[in-house]
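Hi V.,

You were right to ask for the full record rather than a summary. Here it is.
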Amino acid sequence: MDSLEKDKAASKGRLHLLKNKGKDTEEMRRRRSEVTVELRKNKRDEHLLKRRNVPVQESSSDLDSDSDRMLNITSLETIIQNASSDQPNLQLSAIQAARKLLSSDRNPPIDDLINSGILPILVHCLQCDDNPSLQFEAAWALTNIASGTSAQTKAVVGCGAVPLFLQLLGSQHQNVCEQAVWALGNIIGDGPQLRDYVINLGVVKPLLAFISPEYPISFLRNVNWVIVNLCRNKDPPPPIKTIQEILPALAVLIHHTDINASCTFITVDFRRLRRHALSSKYVSRAAAAFDFVV
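Predicted structure:
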């Protein structure tokens, strides 16, 4: 056994020498550094793909205690029952209770709510044009469910929420529009499959229509973040047509006075488009026209 282990160790050592034979030590160190930087960057990007809407005015401890209290006092069965009520106030209260559970900063009970059967109810509420408050609360709850794992995001998509979110982009109520944008951003951020699905349903044109001075900066930042998600992933990369639609909007955003609406995200956008190598000459010409160096 000792002789066999020695032979294995010697073989492993020879393979290591052959693998690195002829490679400069400095070059190897540089490559390791590049890999480390790329891994850190990818991990940071993962945190930007999806975002939960947690009220900033409430502390994490407050939200957690609220969630625990609501789980103890109001069972999920009661929430589901009331969410299907034909009494508007009772229904709104139940949907809001579900949304607050999902707004918990730590370990929101996403799977519990999915398993309770609330998804079809929330999706149905998106169609209640005569009750924008109900639409807003339902969209918020679905946004936070879609911010979870890929399976949780796909559960939202599987219930037919995406076409309804796209309809809500045309709502007369700005808070409903913004929440729909946020939900779509989480779904697009799940990966190229859902990104292309939402693109094919026609998200780009209504999304870019929000790049206007009439919308508050917080709304614009959300739109910007969704545009970033549209430019993510390179297996496969976004369609060339989508890139060509987005570029003029980036020209507007790059010169925006708000730093978070311009340099931070738009730099990412242009560089991602270059990495996709879909039409680098086109992107370079467009970037040059916008006085932007990529």
